[in-house]
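Structural prep section.
Before we set up the soaks we want a predicted structure of the protein with calcium ion in place, mainly to decide which crystallisation condition to try first. Input record follows.
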Amino acid sequence: MNTSKDMTAGNPIIIKIDPSDNVAIVANDGGLQPGTKVPGGVVLKDFVPQGHKFTLEGIEAGGDVVRYGEVIGQAVVDLPEGSWLNDRHIRIPEAPSLEDLPLATRKIDDSPALEGYTFEGYRNLDGSVGTKNVLGIMTSVQCVTGVADHVVRKVKNELLHKYPNVDDVIAITHSYGCGVAIQAPNAAIPIRTLMNLARNPNLGGEVLVVGLGCEKLQPDRLVPKGREVAANVVCLQDIHEDGFEGMIARIMEMVEERLVRLDKRLRETCPVSDLVIGVQCGGSDAFSGITANPAVGFATDRIVKAGGAVLFSEVTEVRDAVHLLTPRVVDEEVGKALIREMSWYDNYLEEGNSDRTANPTPGNKIGGLSNIVEKALGSIVKSGTCPISDVLGHGERVKKKGLVFAATPASDFVCGTQQLASGIVLQVFTTGRGTPYGLAMAPVVKVSSRTALSKRWFDLIDLDAGRIAAGEADIETVGEELFQMILEVASGRTQTAADKLGLANDLVVFNPAPIT
Ligand code: CA
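Run finished without errors. Recording the tokens verbatim:
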């Protein structure tokens, strides 16, 4: 990789990942003009925008385009040496077959465990550990969302300052609960997602469920196991006090009982093996797979080697690289679970008359990502190098430590919602194009793939991995910075950009079952 810090066009910087690649990407701000001689001697025939690919040698129509050492597609026209190559020039190859994939074939890394790292977390009765102390007011049905939001505003204005150890009060609202085919087989997904959201470790087992009374999803189902239903659910149709004010007064009583209990929670020193984090990417560009995602992969390895759990997700972004993941599963059973999740999603897309070309987005393409194969190869780098210890279905709660594949759609806000249900207490989010994404329930550390983005969005991005492309820092350095930042944020010593600004996306529950 070029080691210059000068990103202007006078100093052409190109990035080639694998020795067998026949394309490289342009790293310079503003791209490079035709006629530019790049390192290695190739002269560009076309203008090549930043993050976009050009051919290192002539590729004839029908010839393989190779990046990351993998075929990302076939050229549809003759592409002489130095040509700009974008999504219009490549035909997407067939997705790897789910038959006969190699399972658990890779030698297990037996390097020593990482010891001595801790964070300050909130330990719960069930053994889970939170990074925040949050009161959650959860709805069982969309009908009562206005009331939940009203209560949250009132608590923030009138009560929260009296309980200094409580970080926040949030409304956990969603569009599920009624008008749905609740007996349909796929209804299991939204229902368990909601049940598990209520159990997120950052909520301390103190969620107050606000229901209406006549909805299909009965609110008692959302009360964490072992908690008394009557003390944790309030149904608006059952409140005896008169009018809206009476309703709010009754809810506020139940809220204050919880604030008193939550305020007694204190942080304690916990080993990193108590940490459960999620990783995902959004608004990706061609740099994501060579700067931000590899740095995340390094931090992922650190946490997994320290005994913690890291969840990676986004089925449509791993599907085309699944043949690189199945050798890494710990045993055949986990391998079969991984294939089961890929297959379920293949069918889901097929039923919707859709296919994998629905991803990437137009923004991804402008950023230089030609197709889902290229995106997948850059995306799975977030999973680091450790073995895959377990696979979770959509919205399932984490059961094992280590590197876990948690099936979710790639959609940022759906993935975020499902990872929270799986029990993450912090998320790392990489972005190339930029997004103000955040989660109310858990801190989100945002890592930019390009320095230009982190300069422009200096108060929205937490860590700049673009320094890797500029040769200012290597993957290990940025990865270690990220690992340390995760521990600081998990301990409440550092606030993320999204938390400082109070930015949070809505929860969006994945419901593949019919609406009635
Ligand atoms: Ca995503």
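Observations: Residues 288-501 form one domain.
Flagged for discussion at group meeting.
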